[in-house]
Amino acid sequence: MSESLSPRRLRTRRRLAQAAIELYAEAGIAASTVETICERAGFSRGAFYANFPTKEALSAEILAALHEALSDWTKRALARVRDDLTTTPNLTTQPGPDLLDRTTRRVLNLDAIDPSSPDPWSHASLTLIELSLQAVRDPSVREAYRAGRGALLDPLGSFLEQLAQLLGRRLSVSPEMAAGALIAVFLAASRSALAAGDRVADTLAPRVAVLLGRVTAPLA
Amino acid sequence: MAERGTRRRDETRARLVAAAAEVFAEQGITASTIEQVCERAGYSRGAFYSNFGSKIAICEELLVIERGFYADAFRRGAAAFTRYFAAHPELLALGPYEILERGLVPLLGAFVAVEDDERAATPTNLSLLYTELGLYAAREPGIRPAYAPYAEGMSEPFEQLLGPLFALAGLRLMVSGTEAAELITALYEEATRDALMSETAEGVVAAVIPGLLLAIRLVTEPLPGRGGTS
Q1: Cβ A136–B138 below 8 Å, yes or no?
Q2: Which residues of A touch B219 (CB under 8 A)?
Q3: Which domains does chain A have, with CATH numbers?
Q4: Which residue in B30, B127, B182 is closest to A27 by CB distance?
Q5: Could you report the predicted ipTM of this complex, rounded to two decimals?
Q6: Domain locations in chain B as residue ranges
Q7: CB of B184 within 8 A of CB of B201?
């Protein structure tokens, strides 16, 4: 479907989705209108309706944008862990909680966080929660939500598989199950962090380390 | 006389809070207005403002009520679980995860069952409201001091429930109680939203059990000698 769209049109759609991700996170879907989304994206309402018949139709594009961001992120996260393992030899000879904690720090890039900058996770997590609530309330958007949300499991599942391999471990459940558990932990940790005024990564890190320890097992 | 006035005032407050819970669950807290809450409760804005100063104030009351509701729900769930196996002791010969699979049905059933007819406690409303309160706290710093004890009040009874539950089933925790509670809650919430979207014939309770069992398997192992099917 999207293959037939011109690059310019794809950019317009993606920019509208990016604006909606910000607004949905800040104010919620119900409080965001097509008008405020257009204003944030710098487009006219005409440009919006040329691409999406309704605000609800934008949700699939938002999930596609999140999928792309997640795929890019998993590549960077794996590269950080790989770098760490090459520059510090013998790390995997002492597997255990320390290695998982260290890996989680690299995965979430905890050491590079600038406390004065906005939380890089808050928009994605709040918007994902908003989209899930929208799908609970509105049967007409469920199919698009389930497809888009299901697609997130692929990059995340293969990320977890590769991560386990780097650590000399293997997944002890299917990649889809491990990925689903990671998304669930991400959403719950984000919500409790943001509701307490904390940074997502700080609350998330220990929970991801625990999850990694339980969805993976030593190779032998 | 003063007493009757107080009772009427309590009723007004209770009806406003119940209406707020419904409206908030339906459309989110940020998008809801005081007018909509008043309309649902059948009161004027004057009645609202003489009881609550703001949307934050009514949310504070809602958080206290929800915390109490969950404390009761956890108690009801634990009691239903114990009662079930007291009535069916032969089931305790099953493997640990099969025991839990059976026991979770009465437990979750008792969790969402409320005798109080004032309150429309459907699983959909509960799940939506719970999530909306978290989103509201993420966006509105003014509610955070009231949200923190609520969040604690949600996780504490759950952590306490896990020990006896797993001991009865023949499981031991492989992570701390807090870590287990966090992981199980996270997967339970996702499974609940998933179940609410799928309109399964067998109902929400049955639909969340596989997700819940996966979470439990991740954080436990069978006690020695209670192997069963793991």
Answers
A1: no
A2: 214
A3: 59-218 (1.10.357)
A4: B30
A5: 0.92
A6: 62-222
A7: no
Written as tens digits, the pLDDT of chain A (220 aa) is 555 789 999 999 999 999 999 999 999 999 999 999 999 999 999 999 999 999 999 999 999 999 999 999 999 999 999 999 999 877 777 666 788 999 999 999 998 888 888 898 999 999 999 999 999 999 999 999 999 999 999 999 999 999 999 999 999 999 999 999 999 999 999 999 999 999 999 999 999 999 999 999 998 7
Name which of B26, B135, B174, B185 to mutate to probe chain A: the one with the most chain A Cβ atoms within 10 A of its Cβ: B135
Amino acid (1-letter code) at residue A79: A
CATH for the stretch B62-222: 1.10.357
A176 and chain B in contact, CB less than 8 A: no
Residue of A nearest to B123 (CA): A136
